[in-house]
Amino acid sequence: MRIPSHRLNAAAALALLALGSATACGEDKPSTSADDPSSGASPSAYDGPPCPERLPAGTDPGYGLGTREAARSRPSLPPIDEAWVCEYQSVDVRSDDDSGASFRWDRARQAVPVPAAQLAGLGESLGGLAPPDDGERMCTADLGPRWLLSYVHGDGLIGVVVDDYGCREVRLTDDPFETVPGESAGAGTVRGVLTAPAELLVDLKAVAGQ
Predict the structure, then answer these.
(1) Proportion of the chain in helix, strand, coil states, percent, rounded to 5
(2) Are 125 and 210 in contact (CB under 8 A)?
(3) For 160, which DSSP code?
């Protein structure tokens, strides 16, 4: 359950000002985690964890990524006011999973809140999401992490999943807890695979401290 940011009553605020310690208010806020996001972000209608422990599994028989088909149009995503970044690593399930998938994607660490100063840059990068160019794409066969940018929209979340390998494909989901990335078309998302400006992946990794 998400714990709201501390609120100071008027008397406490005056006392802090008198002691000259108003700048310490932000330091008393609890740290954000996947099950306890706070970070002092603006209030919103969403009240829950920002990232699932495991990405919803795709039905493809290989890496469990979801659709490999190219999107047919650009998305029309809403602006970002509050967001988190989560890293996901592949787990080989060929020995214990009869679903046909070879890998699943588990969260590697706690969610990291996006600083307010970086929201505008991420918004610009999302504005550059587009279907891949026509023609055959040549992608390397390596398998690295995937990054989820999860951000508040109304009383739910929109997820932007970026592969940190191969063609750096991007898949969107209107519910990162339930809907396989690339297989939804609500809340301004589109079905299929997209490409993104290189800055998107760089910025996501920077937020995560990489």
Answers:
(1) 20, 20, 60
(2) no
(3) E
| Global confidence as pTM | 0.76
Token pair of 12, please? 């406490």
Q: What angle do CA 165, 167, 171 make, to 5 degrees?
A: 90
In this structure, the chain runs to a length of 210
The predicted-structure confidence for 64-114, as pLDDT tens digits, reads as follows 788 889 999 999 999 999 999 999 999 887 766 555 567 889 999 999 999
**Number of domains comprising the chain:** 1
What is the distance between the alpha carbons of residues 2 and 157, in angstroms, rounded to a whole number? Answer: 14
Rounded CA separation 55/173 (Å): 10
Cα–Cα dist 127/195, whole Å: 11
Domain that holds residue 191: 83-207
Residue 36 lies in a domain: no
- Work out the average pLDDT over 26-32: 32
